[in-house]
């Protein structure tokens, strides 16, 4: 029988973002105190799950989330650029419904094609790089488990791809809360299913925006 490998894809914890902007790939956005507690809860959840490989997005908030996992599991953290947040033309702006950039006509052109999407990195490209990162981690952790720390949209796009669903979606319906874990099970090289957990609890609907 093919050996089983699990790749746990972890979203980072809550970020300190009092201005509530879409911070995207901007530097300097760190976890809040709550986010640090979330990262610790995720680390504790991963204890005893046979993790032998730990990989993080290069962004600071993801590396901060990986840090307590590295400590608890005595593992080094490898950086993989493919796990980075999705590129977004609204980065650095407030984009809440009813306020901010979405009220300004000069930004409406960016919304012209939700299927690509026209405001950022194409979904197909996000899915391809995330899948490549997952498969690399799967190969490094054959017969055990790996943890990849990434961001909401890349994780959700990866899941849509693996489940054969359309990329276009309502962001409010993503099942990818802060510090949540989307666990991908492989039998040999074959994707065999996934499960979802929220070690730090459900995300408040009014949580700070970002990814």
TrEMBL record:
GO annotations of cellular component type: cytoplasm
InterPro entries in alphabetical order: His_Pase_superF_clade-1, His_PPase_superfam, PGM_Phosphatase
A GO molecular-function annotation: phosphatase activity
Pfam families for this protein: His_Phos_1
Superkingdom classification of source: Bacteria
Descriptive protein name: Broad specificity phosphatase PhoE
